[in-house]
Amino acid sequence: MSDDGQSVRLTGVGAALHFLVDGLCACCLFLLADGTTGLGLLGAFLIYNVLAFLTQPLTGMLADRIYQPGLLLQGAVALLAFGVAVASFVTSRSSLLAPHFPLLTSIFLGMGNSLFHVWGGRQVALATSNDIRALGVFVSTGAFGLAVGMVFCSWWLLYVLLALIVLLTIYILRDRRCYGRSNAPSCARPWLAWCTVLLLMGFVMFRSFVGASFTAGLAKGSGMMLLIGALAMTGKALGGWVVRGGWGFAVVLACVAACLLLTASVGWLWLPGLLFINGTMAITLYWANSALPGREGLAFGLLAAALMPGYLLAQASQLQALTSHSSFLISSLLLTLLPTIAIELLVLWSLRERRADVLGSSVVVNLLTNVPLHLFLVFVSSSVTAIVAGEMLVLVIEMLWYRYFVSSWRQAFMYSFLCNGISCLTGLLVQLVSRLCFLL
Q1: Hey, CA dihedral for 235, 236, 240, 241, is it positive or negative?
Q2: What pLDDT, in 10s, does the model give residues 90-102?
Q3: What's the pTM?
Q4: Which of 74, 256, 381, 388 has the highest Cβ tally under 10 A?
Q5: Are 397 and 369 in contact (CB under 8 A)?
Q6: Cα(176)–Cα(263) distance, integer angstroms
């Protein structure tokens, strides 16, 4: 890590804020779930996680473009404070609107969490020149914060966490320099950069599955939750020192594979397995920042969003739908994702778009939007209203995405509208033709 005292302090304060922010969000949501009104625990966490993770590529783009990054942190703290205030109002007042307040709280907390993470990830990367050890320290504390917030959730803890967040925010913004917008250097091989990002996102999804498999059969009482959070934090923090290159990465993966194979016969091996798999987090973030120089906010957001499909699949498995139809789910997902990627690339190519940045990013944004949408339609609702609403949301997200890479809103809207419209109509045409052939 750099010897610069400012970068060390920023990393330390960022890690402390990460612990406090994730702890506050978990504490607030679990307090709301204890009541009988409003959203249950699963619904509140689903909305929170969708907003906290899937919006990070967009908020990461904002972090890369904004000249005053302190505004992101201020906005995050304000949203978190609004979430706490609304949660407090739920318990102190009863009204016809009370059932909707947990939804509003989840929205405030999710967006505040999203803004904080991309701010912190980008600031630490820039302050330490993408030092892998600092990245590991910053990302590590969130896991233990979640465990503490869940196990010790109480109103006094919630207010203490919020007060500490405000104090640390004032400290870091008043006396320390934040890193604003920088000109992103052009990649010498943009296709290689985007292929690297895609591989890293795929590995992050794999990591979330493996991490869940190590703790799947455990009775998650208070002590076990704290142990799991502590192991995850320790693995992420130490990973930056241990996994510093390709050989270290390969060795850690070999240890993970050994733990997976032997856990059935040696039950305690889930402990080192969970430690090892979390140790890979720092290097994936380091490689993503290296692949997208000058776009550290986007790189952080992409890897965070890649966690969401794993979360949705984990929730689906609780309904026992995944285990009985896993092959159907994977095949249907690929049959919708791969043609959509190919069609949208052809549309962009026909519009004379040749920039590798734009074409490569098209593959990434389709992975980010189509996978969660497909899982939602399979496991939650496949009504016409859900499909139309999902397609409209994807249209907006892709417009914001393309605006990051192209010169005008008009061009971004045209790319998003034509890509989504043509891919959607092509899918409907294929379904219509297949049904006609079946009838004949």
Answers
A1: negative
A2: 665 555 445 556 7
A3: 0.84
A4: 256
A5: yes
A6: 47
